[in-house]
Amino acid sequence: MRKNLSLLFLFVILVLSVGCNNDDDTEVEALRSSVYELQATEGFNVTGTVTLTEGEDDSTIILVELVNSNTDEHPAYIRYNSGAEEGNIAITLKKCTCSVGETVVSTLDNGELIDYDGLLELGSYVSIHQSLEEMETIVSTVHIGDDH
Question: Is 0.85 surpassed by the pTM of this model?
Protein backbone atom coordinates (compact mmCIF):
# COMPACT_ATOMS: atom_id res chain seq x y z
CA MET A 1 0.00 0.00 0.00
CA ARG A 2 2.81 2.36 0.88
CA LYS A 3 4.43 1.69 -2.51
CA ASN A 4 1.18 2.52 -4.32
CA LEU A 5 0.79 5.71 -2.32
CA SER A 6 4.36 6.74 -3.19
CA LEU A 7 3.73 6.07 -6.89
CA LEU A 8 0.48 8.03 -6.75
CA PHE A 9 2.25 10.94 -5.07
CA LEU A 10 5.04 10.87 -7.69
CA PHE A 11 2.44 10.77 -10.47
CA VAL A 12 0.59 13.81 -9.04
CA ILE A 13 3.85 15.77 -8.75
CA LEU A 14 4.73 14.91 -12.35
CA VAL A 15 1.29 15.96 -13.66
CA LEU A 16 1.38 19.22 -11.73
CA SER A 17 4.86 20.11 -12.90
CA VAL A 18 3.96 19.46 -16.56
CA GLY A 19 0.63 21.28 -16.20
CA CYS A 20 2.34 24.34 -14.74
CA ASN A 21 4.87 24.68 -17.51
CA ASN A 22 5.37 28.38 -18.17
CA ASP A 23 5.13 29.02 -21.92
CA ASP A 24 5.94 32.72 -21.50
CA ASP A 25 9.49 32.20 -22.74
CA THR A 26 8.85 34.25 -25.88
CA GLU A 27 8.90 37.96 -25.18
CA VAL A 28 6.50 40.20 -27.02
CA GLU A 29 7.90 43.62 -27.73
CA ALA A 30 5.66 46.33 -26.34
CA LEU A 31 4.29 48.76 -28.90
CA ARG A 32 5.72 52.24 -28.51
CA SER A 33 3.60 55.35 -28.20
CA SER A 34 4.17 59.11 -28.08
CA VAL A 35 1.67 61.74 -26.91
CA TYR A 36 1.84 65.41 -27.94
CA GLU A 37 -0.21 68.28 -26.50
CA LEU A 38 -2.01 70.41 -29.10
CA GLN A 39 -1.61 74.15 -28.59
CA ALA A 40 -4.42 76.55 -29.52
CA THR A 41 -3.53 79.20 -32.07
CA GLU A 42 -4.23 82.87 -31.36
CA GLY A 43 -7.93 83.62 -31.05
CA PHE A 44 -8.96 79.98 -30.55
CA ASN A 45 -9.28 77.70 -27.54
CA VAL A 46 -8.95 74.29 -29.24
CA THR A 47 -6.42 72.06 -27.50
CA GLY A 48 -6.13 68.29 -27.05
CA THR A 49 -3.66 65.54 -27.86
CA VAL A 50 -2.11 63.75 -30.79
CA THR A 51 -1.06 60.18 -29.98
CA LEU A 52 1.22 58.18 -32.28
CA THR A 53 1.20 54.44 -31.59
CA GLU A 54 3.44 51.97 -33.35
CA GLY A 55 1.48 49.34 -35.27
CA GLU A 56 2.51 45.71 -35.57
CA ASP A 57 2.80 45.91 -39.37
CA ASP A 58 5.12 48.96 -39.73
CA SER A 59 2.10 51.25 -39.61
CA THR A 60 1.40 54.02 -37.12
CA ILE A 61 -1.97 54.77 -35.57
CA ILE A 62 -2.49 58.51 -35.20
CA LEU A 63 -5.24 59.49 -32.78
CA VAL A 64 -6.28 63.16 -32.59
CA GLU A 65 -8.50 64.11 -29.64
CA LEU A 66 -9.67 67.72 -29.50
CA VAL A 67 -10.84 69.67 -26.46
CA ASN A 68 -13.03 72.79 -26.69
CA SER A 69 -13.94 72.22 -30.33
CA ASN A 70 -17.34 72.35 -31.88
CA THR A 71 -18.85 69.31 -33.57
CA ASP A 72 -17.80 70.42 -37.06
CA GLU A 73 -15.41 68.31 -39.06
CA HIS A 74 -11.90 69.61 -38.51
CA PRO A 75 -9.44 68.69 -41.30
CA ALA A 76 -6.08 67.58 -39.92
CA TYR A 77 -2.66 67.18 -41.53
CA ILE A 78 0.92 66.28 -40.74
CA ARG A 79 3.07 68.93 -42.40
CA TYR A 80 6.78 69.20 -43.05
CA ASN A 81 8.83 71.70 -41.01
CA SER A 82 7.44 73.55 -37.99
CA GLY A 83 4.21 75.47 -37.54
CA ALA A 84 6.16 78.74 -37.79
CA GLU A 85 7.47 77.74 -41.25
CA GLU A 86 4.12 76.50 -42.65
CA GLY A 87 5.29 73.33 -44.40
CA ASN A 88 3.68 71.37 -47.21
CA ILE A 89 1.37 68.47 -46.41
CA ALA A 90 3.19 65.20 -45.70
CA ILE A 91 0.16 63.14 -44.59
CA THR A 92 -3.54 63.89 -44.84
CA LEU A 93 -5.23 62.63 -41.69
CA LYS A 94 -8.87 61.67 -41.33
CA LYS A 95 -11.02 64.62 -40.33
CA CYS A 96 -11.75 65.04 -36.64
CA THR A 97 -15.47 64.43 -36.37
CA CYS A 98 -17.03 65.22 -33.00
CA SER A 99 -13.53 66.07 -31.73
CA VAL A 100 -11.88 62.72 -32.61
CA GLY A 101 -9.98 61.46 -35.63
CA GLU A 102 -8.02 58.24 -36.05
CA THR A 103 -5.82 57.45 -39.04
CA VAL A 104 -3.64 54.41 -39.72
CA VAL A 105 -0.56 55.53 -41.65
CA SER A 106 2.08 53.54 -43.51
CA THR A 107 2.85 55.96 -46.36
CA LEU A 108 3.25 59.66 -46.92
CA ASP A 109 0.79 61.31 -49.31
CA ASN A 110 3.42 60.92 -52.08
CA GLY A 111 3.42 57.10 -51.61
CA GLU A 112 6.76 56.87 -49.78
CA LEU A 113 6.71 54.26 -47.00
CA ILE A 114 6.95 55.57 -43.45
CA ASP A 115 6.87 53.78 -40.10
CA TYR A 116 6.72 54.96 -36.49
CA ASP A 117 10.44 55.79 -36.33
CA GLY A 118 10.23 57.59 -39.66
CA LEU A 119 7.41 59.78 -38.37
CA LEU A 120 9.42 60.69 -35.28
CA GLU A 121 12.38 61.64 -37.49
CA LEU A 122 10.32 63.59 -40.04
CA GLY A 123 10.60 66.94 -38.24
CA SER A 124 6.97 67.83 -38.75
CA TYR A 125 3.86 69.22 -37.08
CA VAL A 126 0.14 68.52 -36.94
CA SER A 127 -2.26 71.26 -38.02
CA ILE A 128 -5.95 71.25 -37.13
CA HIS A 129 -8.14 73.46 -39.34
CA GLN A 130 -11.36 75.29 -38.43
CA SER A 131 -13.56 73.52 -41.00
CA LEU A 132 -13.77 72.37 -44.60
CA GLU A 133 -15.06 75.84 -45.49
CA GLU A 134 -12.30 77.63 -43.55
CA MET A 135 -9.19 75.66 -44.49
CA GLU A 136 -6.98 78.75 -44.17
CA THR A 137 -7.80 78.98 -40.45
CA ILE A 138 -5.64 76.77 -38.25
CA VAL A 139 -7.08 76.42 -34.73
CA SER A 140 -4.45 74.18 -33.13
CA THR A 141 -0.97 72.79 -33.83
CA VAL A 142 1.76 70.68 -32.27
CA HIS A 143 5.29 69.78 -33.34
CA ILE A 144 5.83 66.01 -33.38
CA GLY A 145 8.94 63.91 -33.41
CA ASP A 146 12.13 63.26 -31.52
CA ASP A 147 13.24 66.88 -31.50
CA HIS A 148 10.06 68.42 -30.04
Answer: no
Residue type, 94: K
pLDDT tens digit sequence for 93-116:
999 998 999 999 999 999 999 999
Distance separating alpha carbons of residues 100 and 118, to the nearest angstrom: 24
Burial code (b: 16+ CB inside 10 Å, e: under 16) for 46-59 equals bbbebebbbeeeeb
Which residue from 80, 79, 52, 81 is spatially nearest to 64, judged by alpha carbons? 52
**What's at 131, amino acid-wise?**
S
Paired with 50 in beta bridges are: 36, 64
Residue 48 · residue 63 · CB < 8 Å:
no
Binned at pLDDT 50, 70 and 90, residue 8 comes out as very low
